[in-house]
Design brief:
78% helix, mainly alpha
């Protein structure tokens, strides 16, 4: 229940880099790893925390529903 909303948000975050920031990294001739570390990682953090803010209650609801459905079986 929580994996895919978190995955989507974390993948959207790094792609939200504005054009001037990407141009600046290209101007500095940054490698792919430097772009990830200095630009895209920091842009992904707000999206990650927003996803955790949304999925934390979903995890609790999923656990309650799983316990409720798993407990309803009569084993004899």
């Amino acid at each position: 229940m929580t994996f895919f909303p978190t995955l989507v948000n974390v993948l959207v975050g790094p792609q939200s880099a504005e054009r001037p920031l990407r141009d600046l990294m290209r101007l500095y001739q940054a490698t792919i790893w430097q772009k990830m570390r200095h630009l895209r990682f920091w842009l992904a953090l707000p999206y990650l925390f927003a996803a955790l803010h949304i999925t934390a209650p979903l995890a609790m609801v999923g656990a309650v529903v799983a316990e409720w459905t798993g407990d309803s079986y009569d084993l004899g």
